[in-house]
Amino acid sequence: MEKLALKLVNDIENKTQEQLRLLEQNFHAQRESTIHHYNQEAVEESNLYIEQELAELKNNVRQSETQFKWKVKKNLFIRREELVEGLFEKLRNKLIEYSKTEAYQKRFLDLINQTLKAENLTDGVLFTKEGDCEFFAKALTSYPNLKVECSGLIEVGGFILQESNGKMAIEMTLDHQLKVQKEWFFAHSELHF
Fold first, then answer.
1. Which of 101, 154, 172, 181 has an alpha carbon 20 to 30 Å from 73's alpha carbon atom?
2. Residue 136's closest CA among 168, 154, 169, 112?
3. Would you call 152 helix, strand, or coil by DSSP?
């Protein structure tokens, strides 16, 4: 009986050991499965966060790059505008210097005579800048009905010829020509922002 009891105890022990081993294997398998599952979820979640962060960073970079490009374009436009304004200011100053020469006086005196003949005018008002009034008044004494007056509208040079009845006026000022050239330049240069 003792042998039988020993054999039974051995069998129970072997069965218990085998059951423990099976339970342990099952526990390790479930543990590994659960760990693998949580690791996979964590990897997927971190990949999603990484993708979101990358997308946000890309948007920030694009936005910064776009803002930077617009800032550069704006600065270039402002600089170009300054250069154009400077160019026309230099041209205006050169025209003012030119209006102080004898060549200017001769050219515009000829232009006044041609305009008077072409329009068949013998009377009216000739408006000039303040510095030209005296010269043109003396030079146009052959037209006794033509009054020469100073105009604050003319700063650079030239003249405005107006009929005595006020119906017609012909403007041939350097101020107007400079303004027209500047407008033409801006219209055709595509310097728009």
1. 181
2. 112
3. coil
Paired residues of 125 in beta bridges: 147, 162
Whether 136 and 115 have beta carbons less than 8 Å apart is answered as no
Is the sign of the CA dihedral 139, 96, 125, 180 positive or negative?
positive
Distance from C-alpha of 57 to C-alpha of 124, rounded to nearest angstrom: 74
Tokens 């154009």 label which residue?
Answer: 84
Distance CA 24, CA 14 (A): 15
The sheet with strand 123-128 has its strands ordered as 145-150, 123-128, 158-162, 169-173
Sequence-ordered list of residues with C-beta below 8 angstroms from that of 118, at least 6 positions apart, any chain: none
In sequence order, the β-bridge partners of residue 173 are 158
150, 134 Cβ separation under 8 angstroms: no
- For the record, the structure tokens of 186 come out as 């801006």
Q: Tens-of-pLDDT digits for all 193 residues of the chain?
A: 778 888 888 888 898 889 889 999 999 999 999 999 999 998 999 899 889 998 998 888 888 888 888 888 888 888 888 888 899 999 999 999 999 999 999 999 999 999 989 988 878 999 999 999 999 999 999 888 999 999 999 999 999 999 888 788 899 999 999 999 988 888 887 765 5
The whole model's pTM is what? Answer: 0.61
Chain-centre distance for alpha carbon 128? 40
